[in-house]
Amino acid sequence: MIVMDKFDIFFEKVQNAAKVAQGKFFVQSAEGRDFETEEMEGEDLFGWLIPNEFIPEFQKEWMSQKGISDQWDDFMTFALWKKVGNDIQIIFRNADEY
User: Fold this and answer.
1) Has residue 50 got a pLDDT over 60?
2) 20 to 30 Å CA-CA from 51: which of 16, 22, 79, 83?
């Protein structure tokens, strides 16, 4: 059995929201605005929300030691959390909307 820590549970929620948006989220940095519940903990994240069709190409750069090229700048995104009732939901905002 795999035991997930509180942040893993949060990050799974981020990736599930990315799947709904037909993509995958790649984290560059944590941006603060922390929260913690009994089940999970997290904070706003910054990175790239990459559409499914571009994931293999982006992942090659992601895995390389060379860094991410400027061609991906349009996909730079904030993954922001918000509490709705007893649930934490994820909202993606482009860097220019933040």
Assistant:
1) yes
2) 83
